[in-house]
Hints:
Blueprint: E1 13-15, E2 22-27, E3 36-38, E4 41-42, E5 44-45, E6 66-68, E7 75-80, E8 86-88, E9 91-92, E10 94-95
Amino acid sequence: xxxxxxTLRPGDQLAGAQSTTKVVVVRAPADRCPEITCGATPMIPxxxxxxxxxxxxxxxxxxxxxxxxxxxxxxxxxxxxxxGELACDGVPMTLKAAKPLPASD
Length: 105
């Protein structure tokens, strides 16, 4: 199964089908449409997502953080924290590290 849209584009909003996690696509690969999952369940367009049940569990996906795939062609921004690990084509996505600021003298 592939992602809900024919192709992912920057600005697309996705939601976890069984989680409160919501993300926005910041960068998407031009040559393929990867399967994006949250907690091993494919993500769906945020506009069609049913309300997820609230949980007291510690979130796996953190608000305001960017997540990238292994080759750096897909980048997601978390807009609503939730449980479930983000993955691209079955490979867990990693938290994008901040760029170091240049030293000032």
